[in-house]
């Protein structure tokens, strides 16, 4: 065989999700995803959704004649923020299911007695083990006595952010009249609205009577002179005190808050006359990481235009 044919021509990378540490198990036989024709010895996977605890990887080298044996599988832990919406504290006019929330004008009628009935059956108040917060702590679930009410059409995520950098995306229904996307401390009151307290930060979209797009915090409002995107990406750097919003498709920066988080925060959402769907468990896109480094390097007036400080 000619010496040229013995040289490695390309690599094949295979990966799959698993909930088991270590080697793949028969009971966890998920299909391998394949990426072929990798020319270099380094490759970056992007756009992954981390909805399992671990991922298996294996590689094989190929020349122009044959493919080699697979390498031993390598297992990596995934630590992305994978959360659902907490329907135990959401406003009664919101219909909440996992990662979707929809306005329901009749929701407050007939549900109150249903909820009380469930509570009277002996609710322990212990968070479900289904979700865990960052750092393997129990989810920060609010009690039903703190259910949002009045004009606070709010629902929070069921998992607290206590450290690290995290990213999720939100898409609104086309006919949604009004909605907000952001984060809040667990102490957000049941009558409080996102962005109107010093314990919450958000961007707000209003399509009712007049169209407005604004950033809100501590009852301060800054109008945003950008087009409302089809899907909003949210980046939270807890340790760095940064909350940024992006066009999830183009990765254009919409707005960025710079603050110092003194308590764990929860993803927060408000919706009126419409609905929102979430995509969680995502890795931080490389484009967002690059923009964050660039933004953090800004000084003077350019930086102040993007910040509302607490």
UniProtKB/TrEMBL annotation:
What keywords does the record list, in alphabetical order? Answer: Coiled coil
The cross-references to Pfam families, in alphabetical order and at most eight, read:
fn3, SPRY
Highest taxon above the source species: Eukaryota
- Keyword Coiled coil attached: yes
Signal peptide segment: none
Q: Where is the composition biased (Basic and acidic residues)?
A: 111-122
Which residue ranges have biased composition labelled Polar residues? 123-135
Q: Where is the B30.2/SPRY domain?
A: 81-285
Q: State the residue spans of region: Disordered.
A: 103-146
CDD domains from the UniProt entry: FN3 (cd00063), SPRY_PRY_FSD1 (cd12901)
Question: What InterPro entries does the database record attribute to this sequence?
Answer: B30.2/SPRY, B30.2/SPRY_sf, Butyrophylin_SPRY, ConA-like_dom_sf, E3_ligase_FN3/SPRY, FN3_dom, FN3_sf, Ig-like_fold
**Stated name of the protein:** Fibronectin type III and SPRY domain containing 1 like
């Amino acid at each position: 065989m000619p010496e040229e044919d013995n040289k490695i021509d390309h690599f094949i990378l295979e990966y799959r999700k698993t909930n088991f540490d270590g080697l793949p198990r028969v009971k966890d036989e998920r299909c391998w995803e394949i990426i072929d024709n990798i020319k270099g010895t380094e490759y970056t996977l992007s756009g992954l959704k981390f909805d399992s605890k671990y991922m298996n990887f294996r590689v094989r080298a190929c020349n122009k004649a044959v493919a080699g044996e697979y390498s031993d599988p390598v297992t990596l832990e995934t630590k992305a923020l994978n959360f659902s919406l907490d329907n135990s504290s959401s406003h009664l006019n919101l219909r909440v299911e996992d990662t979707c929330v929809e306005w329901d004008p009749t929701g407050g009628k007939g549900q109150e007695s249903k909820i009380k009935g469930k509570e009277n059956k002996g609710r322990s108040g212990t968070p479900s083990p289904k979700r865990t917060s960052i750092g393997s702590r129990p989810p920060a679930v609010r009690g039903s006595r703190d259910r949002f009410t009045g004009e606070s059409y709010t629902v929070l995520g069921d998992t607290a952010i206590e450290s690290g950098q995290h990213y999720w995306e939100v898409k609104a229904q086309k006919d949604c009249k009004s909605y907000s996307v952001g984060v809040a401390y667990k102490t957000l009151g049941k009558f409080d609205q996102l962005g109107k307290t010093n314990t919450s930060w958000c961007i707000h979209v209003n399509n009712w009577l007049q169209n407005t797009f604004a950033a809100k915090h501590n009852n301060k409002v800054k109008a945003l002179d950008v087009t409302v995107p089809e899907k909003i990406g949210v980046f939270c750097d807890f340790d760095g005190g940064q909350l940024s919003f992006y066009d999830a498709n183009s990765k254009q920066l919409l707005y960025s808050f710079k603050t110092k988080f003194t308590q764990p925060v929860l993803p927060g959402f408000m919706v009126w006359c419409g609905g929102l769907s979430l995509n969680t468990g995502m890795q931080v896109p490389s484009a967002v990481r690059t923009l964050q480094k660039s933004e953090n390097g800004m000084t003077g007036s350019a930086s102040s235009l993007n910040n509302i400080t607490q």
